[in-house]
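chain below, 438 aa
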Amino acid sequence: MPWLLNIVYLCVLTILSPGIVWRMVRHGRYRRGLLQKLTGHLPDMAGHELVVWFHAVSVGEVLQLQHVVARFCDTSPHRWRILITTSTDTGYDLAVERFPDCTVSWFPLDFSWAVNRALDRVQPNLVVLTELEFWPGFLDTCHRRKIKTAVINARMSDGSFHRYSQARWLVKPLLNHISVVTAQSTEYAERLIALGTRPERTAVTGSVKFDGVTTDPSNEATVALRTLFCIDTGDVVIIAGSTQSPEEEMVLKAWKKLRCRYPHLRLILVPRHRERFDAVASLLARDNVRCLRRSTLDEAPRKIPKDAVILLDTIGELSACWGLADIALVGGSFGSRGGQNMLEPAAFGAAVLFGPNTWNFRDIVRLLLSQQAAIEVAAENQFETHLRQLLDDEDLRTELGLAARRIVLTQQGAIQHTVQLLLAAFAGGDSESRRTAA
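prediction:
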């Protein structure tokens, strides 16, 4: 199987190579960590201490892991060496910042030579993958080496379930060997069991995202941004976060139109990908809108005009920035991405809006809408209407925010359950607290 997978991967890389090379040249992507990814030359962690390897694909997963890793170390009776790996530049940079006491590196590509060398050098006692990272070669090699594996905070969207179902003959043996799988919902757990995870090893814990969010807008990072951006008590702040084209244009158009009536209306734009920062700045320039980029602001307070749009062009600050929002538009929901995490603005008590395409967060969306804790905007041309309604009705804004924050607080507890299951899997036993989806 390893050499068959190598041939398949090489064929796929050959087909995709023109696009990959273009992105490397045009946007500088995929260059960093290339040697480690191709060869598996990860840090040498072999020794007498226990090693746990946590993998988080990108920024969102890295943020989730912060609290999981901290709770794991605090709860475990053993002393562990921690390896954090990521697959993207932004994820790596954030991991270095957020895990100063851990070893941070890159996840190897799923070639047999890279996987074997990585495992030789790390020699993990436990491997923990976040959300949905089923690499056949890696999981198969871990099984043959008797390394225990876990998938935490797992989700299985409609599209992913359909694709994996078509290759169930390949997926089932791999999933069958995973020591523990913690799923965000019963629906996801049932899909994973249908694909091959063992029912007795599959637990519904809820989403660790509920535990990992900050609910106090008076936290140090948010207060620092409030001061830096010169946001006054009377300002009403709209944040459009994790956006993709044409969401920035949609929000900008509505903001420009409504500012005449609401002069204290402030706007902060946060594109999802950093390669779009310049494009959004150019959009603002074309519309003759003053743009202040977060990366150019000094830490010392300055007077920022209220008619200037703030472009948050840094990585890792969106979580704290959501705490400034009176009204939050969660991006990626008017295009083909399937939405972004709306729990962070909800936890701060913002009035949350999102578009109709949110299949990646279907359970969270269903929960928010069922409790009248968010607004789903059916189409781009309806955004201005909903925004105007929220600006006219402060009580409605407040009610939406309080309901959203209440939901987040009542859903917390997944991290503790997840850590208990990880430690039980490492010890070789079953946790009495496991709730299977069978």
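Confidence is low (pLDDT under 50) at residues 429-438. The first helix runs from residue 2 to 27.
thats it, cya
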